[in-house]
């Protein structure tokens, strides 16, 4: 399964809003500038997120967007499904022969499990420990 820029940038918007949760509205312009993204493209992504109730818009001079729910109650799966559609590694899974259908379903279920068990709170509070990439070489 490949997540497009819609899903990736949508997650970026939502993570930024989660980081500022409780501080008032955040403008798409500030999110675009912070992450070096197109504000126009982010405007296209925010509408489906708002329609799904994941974000709320606040009008006015100091307006912007806030999360529609607590960061712990929104999963990355919620966001990806709104922007990318159903989670499936292949099209026409039901037409596959049984062995391959079983494989595709296991892959789909594993991806769903990760997405549905990773909340915005998890993503917003993530810190890069560097341990996974850190190798020490001694001579």
Automatic annotation (TrEMBL):
Keywords: DNA-binding. It comes from the Bacteria. One of its GO terms (molecular function) is DNA-binding transcription factor activity. SUPFAM superfamilies: Winged helix' DNA-binding domain (SSF46785). GO terms for cellular component: cytosol. InterPro entries: TR_Rrf2-type_CS, Tscrpt_reg_Rrf2, WH-like_DNA-bd_sf, WH_DNA-bd_sf. Pfam families: Rrf2. PANTHER family: HTH-TYPE TRANSCRIPTIONAL REGULATOR ISCR, WINGED HELIX-TURN-HELIX TRANSCRIPTIONAL REGULATOR, RRF2 FAMILY. This is Iron-sulfur cluster regulator IscR. It comes from Cytobacillus firmus (Bacillus firmus).
């Amino acid at each position: 399964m490949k997540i497009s820029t819609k899903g990736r940038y949508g997650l970026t918007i939502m993570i930024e809003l989660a980081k500022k949760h409780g501080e008032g509205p955040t403008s798409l312009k500030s999110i675009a500038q912070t992450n070096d993204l197109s504000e126009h493209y982010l405007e296209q992504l925010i509408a489906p997120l708002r329609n799904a109730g994941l974000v709320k818009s606040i009008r006015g001079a100091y307006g912007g967007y806030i999360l529609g729910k607590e960061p712990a109650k929104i999963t990355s799966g919620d966001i990806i499904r709104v922007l990318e559609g159903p989670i499936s590694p292949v099209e026409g899974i039901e037409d596959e022969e049984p062995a391959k259908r079983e494989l595709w379903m296991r892959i789909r279920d594993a991806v769903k499990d990760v997405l549905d068990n990773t909340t915005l709170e998890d993503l917003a509070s993530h810190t890069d420990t560097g341990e996974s990439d850190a190798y020490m070489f001694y001579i």
